[in-house]
Design brief:
21% of the residues lie in helices and 37% in strands. It is built from 6 helices and 21 strands. Strands 12, 13, 14, 15, 18 and 19 form a 6-stranded antiparallel β-sheet that branches. Strands 1-2-3-9-6 form a 5-stranded antiparallel β-sheet. It has a 4-stranded antiparallel β-sheet with strand order 5-4-10-11, with no helix packed on it. The model is unreliable at 11-19, 32-72 and 306-315 (pLDDT under 50).
Length: 396
């Protein structure tokens, strides 16, 4: 009987192509059923009916996995799924590493409900999606909050807020498209689409511990929004500011996530700049790069960063250590992976170290990255071609 049962289970597994995270759960169910099937004394008719019912349940599980496949993952916020370009592989990665967490925390005031839907958190970066329901945004207007207050363990860590999701994401070549896959007539400046199909708005908070620099994991997060407002600029009527809804919406919870990173210490010098890449930490959500340089080079680099806004054609005398991309194992060249939210600079003048930490604008599997890209000495507005970047390759 056991052989017959195992053959039936094996047949189900072979017929159903299901994601690894679902397969693990299915295996547990199959094992439990098998133990019940072969354990104990000789089986009565009642026992046979019980095992038969269990087998049917297992068949339903496998068949369901076959038909819904990736839909077996947790319910994802549209803002994070589209905004961070999360496909089935990325969902499995984030859920397996327990970086993605469903929240479902709601607050209501004055007929408007705001829900903290989901978070993706590593050691230093948190991406959090909020859904706003019950307001009507005027055509052509940009939404905003009158006040945003964010505290980590009761302290102000310098987070200035997030952005309302426009429906627009950046491509690997620096262009812009809609996150839902639809194209835009204007590829350079697509029209912003704040309002979702159900009439809601989405707000994405990407944050780091700007002041303290300590990990965000397991910290208490407090978020308060006050008043929903809008701004609108019309060529004929000029600038307009108005209220969408008055109210206060408060949230508080402990940030859950994962501190898993891929770490390298290449020690590679960037040309003849006198700057070496000392350490790289890479997670699916963010990257942290620590550089080593002597005091003279650090002084020069500090001077350059203080004069970032120069006239077109002015030459950088040193690499742009904050303009970082990735090179994938399949050969893909991705120079545009910064979200420009959740950035942090750490200067250690005593030890000659500079660390630049930033959030990705998409989810990246660290296991598929072959190296990072750092912009060479370059002229502003120069094309982002591979020859204009230093490549720091990884070696295990």
């Amino acid at each position: 009987m056991r052989k017959d049962f195992d053959d039936r289970i094996r047949s189900l597994k072979q017929e159903a192509e299901i994601p690894e995270i679902v397969q693990k759960k299915a295996d547990l169910a199959f094992d439990k059923i098998r133990q019940e099937a072969v354990g104990g004394d000789a089986m009565t008719n009642r026992g046979k009916r019980k095992i038969s019912a269990a087998f049917v349940a297992a068949a339903v599980l496998a068949a369901s996995a076959l038909t819904v496949s990736a839909a077996a993952y947790m319910t994802w916020s549209r803002g994070l799924e589209e905004g961070l370009q999360v496909g089935d592989a990325e969902k499995e990665l984030l859920e397996t590493q327990e970086m993605a967490t469903p929240l479902a925390l709601s607050a209501e005031d004055n007929g408007v409900t705001i829900t903290a839907e989901q978070s993706i958190v590593d050691n230093y970066i948190a991406n959090i999606s909020f859904k706003i329901e019950g307001v009507t945004l005027p055509e052509g207007a940009d939404p905003g909050f009158g006040l945003t207050e964010i505290l980590v363990d009761g302290e102000d860590v310098g987070v200035d807020g997030g952005d309302f999701y426009t429906g627009i994401v950046q491509t690997s070549d620096g262009g812009y498209v809609y996150g839902d896959g639809t194209s835009s007539e204007d590829e350079e400046f697509p029209e912003r689409k704040y309002v979702q199909e159900d009439g809601s708005l989405i707000y994405i908070l990407t944050m780091t511990d700007e002041y303290g620099g300590e990990p965000l994991l397991n910290k208490n997060l407090y978020v308060k929004f006050r008043d929903l407002v809008y701004t609108k600029t019309d060529p004929e009527e000029g600038y307009e500011f108005g209220n969408l809804a008055e109210g206060v919406w408060e949230f508080e919870w402990t940030l859950a996530g994962s501190d898993q990173v891929r770490t390298f210490e290449p020690g590679q010098e960037l040309g003849e700049s006198g700057i070496a890449v000392k350490r790289i930490e890479l997670s699916p959500v963010s990257m942290s790069v620590t550089y080593q340089m002597d005091t003279e080079v650090m002084r020069e680099y500090l001077g350059l960063t203080a004069r970032r806004h120069r006239s077109e054609g002015d030459l950088y005398s040193l690499p742009d250590l904050s303009n970082i991309g990735v090179k994938m194992q399949d050969g893909d060249f991705l120079p545009f992976v910064r979200s420009y939210r959740g950035e942090k600079e750490i200067w250690d003048t005593e030890n000659g170290e500079y660390t630049f930490r930033f959030a990705f604008n998409r989810i990246i599997d660290p296991a598929k990255v072959s190296g990072i890209l750092i912009q060479k000495e370059s002229i502003e507005n120069q094309e982002a071609t591979e020859e204009n970047f230093y490549t720091v390759s990884f070696s295990e």
